[in-house]
Amino acid sequence: MEINNNSIVADIVANNYKTATIFKLYGIDFCCNGNRTIQEVATKKNIVPDTLINKLIRIDRGSKSNIDYQNWSLDFLCDYIYQNHHTYVEKQIPEILEYLTKIAKVHGDNHPELHEVLQLFKESAGELTTHMKKEELILFPFIKKLVEASNTNIPLPPPPFGTVENPINMMHTEHDNEGSRFRTISKLTNNYTPPEDACNTYKVALAMLQEFEEDLHKHIHLENNILFKKAINVENQLN
């Protein structure tokens, strides 16, 4: 795709996920707040737009993603998100909580920010668990019904929530909340940098937190910028 001042961040990453590394380098949110132009994000970060554009073009041309999420069927993408991201979150939450609880207890006097990090992650764990269940039990099954209706030309009865945009708007809001929460966690931990007196458990906990946030970014990107947009388009076409 052509990348210029008017290109939308989310569209660039949706076309080639490897461009996300450039946005991460400059601290630009490409998932929750990806619906901004290159000009807008460059101005906000005090970056010369051409500098950002040239780096994006180089990585786009030199390293096309092997996984073309854009051309996947929406029902398959739902299953992929569940199997690769929902299950990851469910698996990692108890382990990260265990590590954070331990280091807050041992290092909390010297690093009181750990207590806030622990509390924020507990809140995230609860919210994400509920959020994912709503997707698994309500939104994803309906998106699969949209795909089936589109493939078979069989009319789909209207859902109790009116339109797919209503639960999607709720998911967007909850994604924004998690993005904000993890920006705070990142700031509190100096971008997941262990202090000089950090033990191995401390280092492992921060590394796991950072990996968790990176997975969450990709998870939210796949939903906000690909799955949800396409689901709305399919519903509009059916109507």
From TrEMBL:
InterPro entries: Hemerythrin-like, RIC_family, ScdA-like_N_sf. GO terms for cellular component: cytoplasm. Keywords: Cytoplasm, Iron, Metal-binding. It is found in: Cytoplasm. Residues 83-231 form the Hemerythrin-like domain. One of its GO terms (molecular function) is metal ion binding. PANTHER family: IRON-SULFUR CLUSTER REPAIR PROTEIN YTFE (PTHR36438). This is Regulator of cell morphogenesis and NO signaling.
